[in-house]
Design brief:
By secondary structure, this protein is α/β, with parallel strands linked by helices. It has helices spanning 43-51, 87-92, 122-132, 168-178, 193-205, 217-223, 232-252, 266-277, 288-304, 307-310; strands at 4-11, 15-22, 27-34, 63-66, 81-82, 95-98, 101-103, 107-110, 116-119, 140-145, 150-156, 159-166, 260-264, 283-287. α3 packs across α9 (288-304), α4 (168-178) runs antiparallel to α7 (232-252) and α5 crosses α7 (232-252). It is globular.
Length: 312
Amino acid sequence: MGEASFVAGDWGTSHLRLFLCDARGAVLDSGSGPGAADAGGGFSEIFDSLTARWQPRSGALPAVLCGMVGSTIGWIHAPYLPCPAVPDQIADGCVAPRRDVHIVPGLSCHNRFAAPDFLRGEETQILGALLLVPALRNGRRLLCLPGTHTKWAVLQDGAVQEFLSAPTGELFALLSEHSVLVRKLSQKSAVDADAFREGVSRFNEYPHAQLLHRLFECRSRMLGGELAAENAAAYLSGLLVASDVHGALSLLSISGSGPVYLIGSSELTQLYAMALASHGCGASPVDGAAAALAGLAQVHRRISQPVAAHDA
């Protein structure tokens, strides 16, 4: 590893993750702090206190941040760039709240339902995935970034053409915590794979049925003795993910585009891979944290270039 070159940060709604990196983007040290929602407007102070031990006496290291830090509740608003957007446009769209800090912008589009759609943070993971998986730079590719608000993105030769958001993770959390569909005792940290597959399979029996007409099964199958209470959350997850996958493939599936590239945590990408497999669709996982870090390093390299190099 080389000497410290820049600070990379993923500053989301609930968490801040900071990394001290060398010129190649290798991590030398890391730290964490409060998310944008809990920053109380003190972004500069929080950042300085957490990075003080990394700063050389000669001056502040440059920093590149992504996530909700660039939202209306963040340090400074980094406007959404309209799609289609190429990687260099995303890097060049950074906003600087001060000289040593750059914040990556989000992306916007009008989705297949003619509705406005937005993402923030995932654009950096996409930038990193383009570096980690060279195949994404050529042809038409379909990405899925599962999470609280799952994003499905279409790439054309490395440019983000369009995307679609689905609050799959948020619905799961709300229904698990605030409804009678799933008992509290059935909520486990790890999803039971068999119960999840059963939920996927049941959804796929009637794929065109409204999801609202299927959700009560999480309770009714427990009452009927078909589903153990401790597996109801996994069954609910299967229904929701199956609905998400079926809808996205129906709208965005691209013949001959290869597998769906899943960018995220191993637990979530495995669940989506199961649901995709039920459609005979391959999946290629990409570690979400590694993609975000690679994307931040790429943005740092871009903004560190002389201005003339951008126009060459």
